[in-house]
Amino acid sequence: MQQIDDVVLNPPFNVTRASHVVLNVKDLAASKQFYTELVGLVVSDEDASAVYLRGLEERGHHSLVLRKSADQTCARIGMRVQTDDDIFRARDYFSAQGIESQLVDVPFQGPTLHVSDSLGVPLEFCASMSACARLFKEYHLYRGACAQRLDHYQLQIPAVSQALAFYQPLGFRVSEYTFSNKEDGGQHLWGLWLQRKGNPHDIVFTHGLGPRLHHFAYTLPDTNDMIRACDIAGALGYAPQLERGPGRHGISGALFVYFRDPDGHRVELFNTHYQHIDLEPALGWDLADPKRADQWGMPAQNKWFSEATEFASVTPSQPDIKIDPPTLERFLALSNDS
């Protein structure tokens, strides 16, 4: 049985980081405007069926792909691996585990492997992309929140311990986690922050109906860009889509704001988290600790916990145990009662 602080130093293939997300959207023009004018991404390529975007410091061709579709779902989340050989090692590893995978051709990407994890999350591993110019010093091109690079995903799943069993053998390390104490002295696992690139997270799993994509996140240069994003949201009519923040997370310590795009997909804009490179114990947060979610700022609305993007052709499942999250609605009700 795997433990939180187990470390696999020589995984079967070398995942380096969270790489890209592929979203299905109803209106390409509306989604393109949101991600370029508000988030500040730049267009690498586009056609009638798809728009490929990247952050200002990204050399890879895309970190966000918008595909025109009647369904507003997430097609896949992507992970980079070190070399082409890692793609073939990954295929062999999954085959040995009895997990079906498929080598596919994807525009602007090198060898690419499609596979679903043990929870049904559709993953896309690639070793390379067409190279584009980094634009982080082209300050005259900065727009909106000036998003720099894709950093991580957060997913809702019905069995968090199952994610640990799948991803830990691949070299993912736990930086932080949430738990509650059992009567027998053990712990019930409610959330996992897993990383490969040396900061708190590449992929996060939290308890809930799933698998579903809760959000994906881009880093910003500084706090002023976060405030400017809020101002631009107001100017462009996106203010109702500002769902949460600004605020400061307890877990990871990030300063954040969250928006919903025209299709309801949730994106986080944030800065100021920390390095997690050395072999050190993971930080555990008791579910009852109010500072785990917010060091400061208002609690999240109920829809923050109940709404998320479904994966294409994947039916979410309810968890066996439900929890009562600390919502804004509950906070306001308690305030009124007092």
Q: What would your notes on this structure say?
A:
- The chain has 338 residues and is α+β, with helices and mostly antiparallel strands.
- It has one domain (15-337): Roll (2,3-Dihydroxybiphenyl 1,2-Dioxygenase, domain 1), CATH 3.10.180.10.
- 18% of the residues lie in helices and 33% in strands.
- It contains six helices and 18 strands.
- The strands form two sheets. Strands 9, 10, 11, 12, 13, 14, 15, 16, 17 and 18 form a ten-stranded mixed β-sheet that branches.
- It is globular.
- The mean pLDDT is 94.
Supply Rg: 19 Å
> Got a strand count?
18
Order of helices and strands: EHEEEEHEEEEHEEEEHEEEEHEH
CATH architecture: Roll
Termini gap = 46 Å
The SS-based structural class is alpha+beta
Please bin the fraction of helical residues.
10-25%
Q: Shape from CA axes?
A: globular
- The CATH homologous superfamily is called 2,3-Dihydroxybiphenyl 1,2-Dioxygenase, domain 1
Number of helices: 6
| Biggest beta sheet attributes | 10 strands, mixed
Q: Could you please say which CATH topology applies here? A: 2,3-Dihydroxybiphenyl 1,2-Dioxygenase, domain 1
State the low-pLDDT regions, or none. Answer: none
Specify the CATH class: Alpha Beta
Q: How many domains, as an integer?
A: 1
What value does the average pLDDT take?
94
Strand content: 25-35%
